[in-house]
Amino acid sequence: MSDGMFSAIKISGSGLRGQRTKMDVVASNLANAETTRTADGTPYRRQRAIFKQMLGERIQRHHGTMGRNPAEDMVRTDPRHMTSPATRPGGHTPDGVSSAVEVAPDSSEFRVVYDPGHPDADADGYVLMPNVNPISEMVDMITASRAYEANVSAVQAAKDMFNDALKI
Questions:
Q1: pLDDT exceeds 70 at position 93
Q2: Distance of CA 123 to the CA centre of its chain
Q3: Helix (H) or strand (E) holding 101
Q4: Percentage of the chain with pLDDT > 70?
Q5: Within 13 Å of residue 86, how many CA atoms lie on the same side as its CB?
Q6: Nearest to 118 by CA among 35, 26, 25
Q7: Using CA atoms, how far apart are residues 113 and 77, in angstroms rounded to an integer?
Q8: Does residue 39 have a pLDDT over 60?
Q9: Is 16 helix (H, G, I), strand (E, B) or coil?
Q10: Please, are residues 53 and 102 in contact by the beta-carbon 8 Å criterion?
Q11: How far is Cα 48 from Cα 111, in angstroms, rounded to an integer?
């Protein structure tokens, strides 16, 4: 079968990997929501899974443009404008799927809580707490879980189409 037939699985595989990374980040954030002292002596800093916008970056990298009006046609003036970096020599990835997720620390301020009995309280009784909001993390977890399920369904649909094509 041609590589084009497997592109749906590759795309969904990238989505599965991204959502799994997001779930790992959310789990770490929830597990450390009350960690007031890390190895460097500061509270745990929330991590974020940042999804890259792949198509826009690839078009910009190759000096292409794309109209936002659906009636406009996208004209490719050079056959290499939409070429994937993975198709160039040395541009492959180990599993054939490029990652579109980056994990970065959230730069928002730590929460300040008055708790004079806490071992990490300052002289005035205030404690710096992690910048993790458990409710937001749970919303992110549900969102990632549903996106993961959607990608699993897409893989299953592609698999069913391949099986039907083989029966013909």
A1: no
A2: 41
A3: strand 101-105
A4: 69
A5: 10
A6: 35
A7: 59
A8: yes
A9: helix
A10: no
A11: 17
CA geometry: angle 66, 91, 52, nearest 5 deg: 45
Q: How far apart are CA 109 and CA 130, in angstroms?
A: 9
% helix / strand / coil in the chain, to the nearest 5? Answer: 45, 10, 45
Strands 111-114 and 126-129: antiparallel
Burial class (CB in 10 A: 0-12, 13-18, 19+), 156: exposed
Q: Give residue limits of the domains in the chain.
A: 3-52+100-167
**DSSP class of residue 110?**
P
At 18, list the tokens: 């991204």
Among 93, 96, 99, residue whose Cα is nearest residue 22: 99
Joined together, the tokens standing for residue 127 give 């404690």
Residue 50 pairs in a beta bridge with 102
Measured distance CA(152)–CA(161) in Å, rounded: 14
CA 59, 64, 67, 73: dihedral to nearest 10 degrees?
-110
pLDDT at 107: 93
